[in-house]
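Researcher: Here's the sequence for the chain we discussed earlier.
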Amino acid sequence: MTASTEALTSKLEPRKGPVKVQLNTWVLASTEARLKWLVANRKFTVTSVVDVALQELLDRYDVPSADPDGQIREQ
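Model: Thanks. This is the structure I predict for it:
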């Protein structure tokens, strides 16, 4: 296998990491503007900002944690 073939193959392999699902929602224009500023000026991604913000909200309201597959195992 050549170096270029190996590079192409590595791009085709599934990425390892947590399972992600698509989340679509509407936000205020002012919230979008602030989010765009954060992404542009602090090099965050929209996904990471939304995930951290939601995790903090869910923790604040004592919502049970979910496993990596998205299942909540209530105690």
